[in-house]
Structure formats: C-alpha cells, structure tokens
Amino acid sequence: MPLVLPPNVSEKNFQKALDAFAGVVGRQWVLATDEDRNTYMDIYAPGDADEHIPSAAVGPQSAEEVQAVVRIANEYKVPLWPISRGKNLGYGAAAPRMSGTVVLDLGRMKRILDVNERFGYCLIEPGVGFFDLFAYLQEHKIPLWMSVPANAWGSVVGNALERGYGYTPYGDNTRNICGMEIVLPNGDMVRTGTGAMSNSPCWQLFKYGFGPSWDQVFVQSNFGVVTKLGMWLMPEPEATLGLNIQLPNPDDVGWAVDQLQPLRLSGVLQQSPSIGNSLRIVAAQSQRSQWYQGDGAMPDDVLRTVLDKFNLGWWNINLRLYGYDDVNEAHAKIIKAAFAKHTQKQFEIVKWHRGDPIADSGAGVPSATALQIINWRGGRGGHLGFSPVLPPTSEHVLKQFHSTKKRYEEIGVDYYGSFTLFERYTTNINMMIYDRDDTAMTTKVRSLFKVLVADAAKEGYSEYRTHLSDMDDVALTFDFNNHALLRLNETVKDALDPNGILAPGKQGIWPKAFRGARA
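Below the sequence we write its predicted structure tokens.
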C-alpha cells in the first residue's frame, strides 16, 4: 500500500517523526514499508479499505515508550491510532479511522503483571491475548476463569475497551474493568480509581476511588492510551450444568426471550445466553454453494433443508448454570418448567464437575473456530456486524427480527442473527458475510448496513459498537438536544488533546484539527 501522509503533515516532518519514534522504540519497530502498511489494513474491509489507510506503525514495549511516542506525535502533529492486537475483526481490525494516521501497536506490551487467586483479578497489558491469559491460568493451576468472546484471537484489554463480551456469568467484560493506567494525549500518565494512590492495595478491588470515576471515560474513546488494565475474573465453580435446546420456528425467539428475561433478572440464570439462528452454525461447517447458488438471499425452503441435514432448529440456545450441584439442579428445574409452557422439546443436558476436562465446563476456553464463517460465500471472505441494543421483550425482539430479516431479503443477503440476553437489555448481533473481492456483494452489504442503522434509529435502538466507516453515522443517531452528547465528547477531546493526535474520528469523536473530516 503506497504512503498516504497524515493531513497537514509534510513528508519531511513525517520522516522526522518516524526517525524520532525509532530513537524511542528501535528502528525495527517503526514499520513504514508498503508491506507494513498492508499488514495494518482492514483485512475484512467491505470494499472501503482505501478510506482507512495507515501511513506507518510504531510498536512500543512499555508505558514509558508510549509516553515518549505520544510526545513526539504532538511535536510533529502526527495522529496516532492505538490498537491492542489489531484483531477487532468485522469492526475495522487494525486500520485507523482516518487515512494517514500512524498505528500505535501495543502488541509487544504483553506482560501479565499480577493474578490474584484470592480476590479473583488480573492486571495485564494490552498485548495479552485470550489464549495467553488462558494458558497462564492453566499452567499455574489458578482456579480462575475468563469470559471469552466467540472469536478469541484478540486482546483481553482491547475486547473490554470495545464493550465486548463472553458467555460466563462474568460475560460483560467492560463491567469487570477495575483500575487502569492511561497515557494521556499530552504524554502524561494517570491511574484511575484507587490506583491514583501510589501505595494502594485496592487498585483492582475498588473501582471508584474518590471523586469522579474515570474508567468508563476511556472505554470506546480517544481520550487516552490504556497501558495497564485490571480485570475481575470468575472463581472456578464446583460444577456447571448445560441446557441446550433447538427451537423449530422463527417466531419462537419471542416467547423464549419472555421466559428467559425474568430468570436472567432474578439471577436464576447467571450468564447472558445467546439465541442464535442456525446460519451461524451452518456457515462455520459448510459453504453456501453446497446448498444454494442462486441470486439474492437463500430462500426459507432451502434453509429448512439445510436445518434438517444438520439436525438444527431455526434458533439454537445454549444455557449454562454455574455453582453448586444442588443449586444448579434447582435452577434447571425452574428453566425447564418455563420452557414447557411453550414447547414439548427437551433440553440436552451437559454436566461438568471440578476436575473434569475444562473443555466441557462452559468456562472461557479460547477458540478461533467462529472465524470459519467467513468461508460461507467463498473467495476472500469477510464479515460486518450490525449490533443494536433493545429492550428484552417479545414485542421488541420480534419486530426487530422481522424488520431486519426483511431488509436482508430485500437487498439480497443471507440472514444471520442472534440475540444475547442481559438482565435488562438484549444485543441483536447481525452478521453480513461476503466475498470481499465481489464488488457487487460488498456494495449490497454496505447499503444494507446503512438501511439497518436508519431503521433502528427510528425505533430508538442504538448500536453498541460499529465498523470504522460507520462511526459517524452511529454517533449522529444520539440526537437528544441537537447532539448534546457529541458536543460534550468533543469538548472533552479538545481539552485533553488540543493537537488532535489520538485516534481522530473514533466513535465519531473528532478533534478540532480534523473536525472537517466528518463530512
């Protein structure tokens, strides 16, 4: 990929900045060849890769090196795009929002600084991946479990900062953040919560500290670079009990949500279950061409044939109970009774006890198998996610499901959706799978995405994360009082980052220096 300079930076000053970066991190960790730039492009880009071209990348190995790099970036007005490991697949991967930005790659910062078994937490750097932390816990026989997303290739810190989640009772990874170390846009360093005390033993125990609580300000923001993060981990339970069921009809998702939501709210069900349509299983195990080669979305009758072949329901639900055997059995009885009001289908039961192989436990065992879905359409596959948040009721869920499925069919994309149920809301994750070398297909996908954002906004549903190309569109759906929240975000941005060097455009937040790029 040829060089695209940062806006308003001359080639001479850009080279001076790279030379200064090299003086901090070493010449080998300033990556500025055409091949290097290709490495940091959005590998799943749906036909818009040229909107997010990095100019270079720099790889510090310590928080002190991050500070030095940030100060140099201010001197030369060179914007930086921090990434943990760059595996934010389907949302932009390692690419920056604004072309010409230098990627600040924190992947070399991969120390596991502390794991406390008694209080159930870890303190880690952004380069630590889910596989790394899992291996550490297993190797040291530490009875703590992580919460792992479907694709566990990425960073534990990065996933938490992007509001990712897994499927244990500790599934909301952002909620489990406790204490950060952050390099601010001027190169200064702060620690949040009680970490603001130099000798506090409670940094990973008490989130709030004294005065305003800042941890969430640095989630999905461009206000600082997180260099250390505390994360609460789940104590290994005595036992788990899995309840798996397949629901045959599209509208079954409505009553399933109505039955599960009060159980989730009351604590009978501790984890946030995902109710997924069958395509996410079929797409990971086969290719579309095996079943259907026609234009447009796969017809329902063809899908029904595929379901019969794989012995799947239209929706598939995997529930898991964690804790003491007797309690799990009692909660399972309550769940079975709730479902028996609507279906005669029986749950498949999967039991695990401490000491059994962890693969059968329902623990956060990392895997990248979910990435196989990109092969569904053939060619060089990719996926894009549309993820609105809505109330967990059958009324909202069914309306959203039918509306979204109809849009998929109108535009000619195979419907792939799921609802993940939290105590008081559900996220509706919809994947669009495509061959990224097929221009017609990627054009359809981008059109579909924009239609879905507009449809959701009419209902008052917002996305909780989104692809780089759509950050402005999604930010503008938060329109109360003429976009007062965006004004607040950009007021804070300008105060903390007057030169606008940290992640311009992230989550639709543009610094004054680049605010014209929003158009």
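The mean pLDDT is 95.
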